[in-house]
Amino acid sequence: MQLLKHLQRYSDIDFLVEPTRIIGKEAVMLVDPDQLILIDSKFPISTGKARILNGNVEKDLEDMWKRLDQKKVFNINDYNTLEDINSELDRYAANCKEGVTCEIEEFGNSVEGRPLRMLKITKPGPDRKVLVFDSTIHSREWLAPATLLKVLDLIHKQEENDAIELLNKYDFYFSIILNPDGYVYTWETERFWRKTRSINPNSICNGVDLDRNFDIKWGTVGASTNPCTDEFCGSAKASEPETKAIQDLSLRIGHKVLAWNTMHTAAQTILFAWSVLEDGVCKMADDHDDLSRVADAYADAIENTYGTVWRRGNSCLLTYPTSGTQNDYLRAQAGIKWVYTPGLRGPGFNPGSNAIEPSFREYWNGVKAMIKAIEDTKQ
Ligand SMILES: [Zn+2]
């Protein structure tokens, strides 16, 4: 574990699934032939300490790009470009069910000037609480926006009873792409790019890990000050326009938000506060039992859909300590109690389009169970 964390921080090996403290949970690395020799020397493949999951990622990617290059329009059952997602969001906003309001709010801009967008699907009524869902703060985690678009579609369509009942009670805000520059870069240049595309002074390496850049215990643990790593926390707390925009949004709407889900992929985990250490040990939330009970209902409902295994728990304990995270900021500064970071299924960061439907089915069951468990806690 120590050696893996060291490699993650100081080598240029790309970790697709980060090393965690979960016993038996594998880290996944994307390596070139030279790096494979290094890994084999540290974790001999012959002894089973490491194994080759996919000996030819390039071929998989070639096949995928061939398919996606032929796809000319938005397809909810496949991965979509930022441009196509934005057109589709416009279409959702323009075609709203009677009695429902669908409205796009642009709450900031990325460093390259792309708008940060949120589709709000609401109904009239006093003191309605909001459920917020966002994804793609890490641009390579494509299954998250693909899954979330299906949830959005279901709420927007208002055909299924569960979706009708939930919109009768709550407003839904969806921000599908929190890191648009990185997302465009994953389509145009480097499929496994995680960070933003900001230019770092005095470095040849671009990008900041937005999920280490928030103004909450920034830079204290589990973040890198090396701009060339995937966990680079930025030059200062909230140095990035995307971070500032998400912070400002959450401070503005926090009082009316019941729950906020910030979606990642390829972990099969439901994580909650806190991410940081306090006095050298993982900091536990005062309401840990509440968070844990709801996370159990949430993860159990997901597991019961297809029999997959989902870990749930304190983010620091279950994975490793990190700081400057969105989850911690939403809890500590925006005052939102029910903040969860689901890490959707894999495999890896490049699952085929056939992963989208099962990911959506299990996630949607989880969301419904999460809301029900929150309601039960409040009574
Ligand atoms: Zn992520």
From TrEMBL:
<keyword id="KW-0482">Metalloprotease</keyword>
<keyword id="KW-0732">Signal</keyword>
<dbReference type="InterPro" id="IPR057246">
    <property type="entry name" value="CARBOXYPEPT_ZN_1"/>
</dbReference>
<dbReference type="GO" id="GO:0008270">
    <property type="term" value="F:zinc ion binding"/>
</dbReference>
<keyword id="KW-0645">Protease</keyword>
<dbReference type="GO" id="GO:0005615">
    <property type="term" value="C:extracellular space"/>
</dbReference>
<keyword id="KW-0862">Zinc</keyword>
<protein>
    <submittedName>
        <fullName>DgyrCDS12874</fullName>
    </submittedName>
</protein>
<keyword id="KW-0121">Carboxypeptidase</keyword>
<comment type="similarity">
    <text>Belongs to the peptidase M14 family.</text>
</comment>
<dbReference type="InterPro" id="IPR000834">
    <property type="entry name" value="Peptidase_M14"/>
</dbReference>
<feature type="domain" description="Peptidase M14">
    <location>
        <begin position="78"/>
        <end position="374"/>
    </location>
</feature>
<keyword id="KW-0479">Metal-binding</keyword>
<dbReference type="Pfam" id="PF00246">
    <property type="entry name" value="Peptidase_M14"/>
</dbReference>
<keyword id="KW-0378">Hydrolase</keyword>
<dbReference type="GO" id="GO:0004181">
    <property type="term" value="F:metallocarboxypeptidase activity"/>
</dbReference>
<dbReference type="GO" id="GO:0006508">
    <property type="term" value="P:proteolysis"/>
</dbReference>
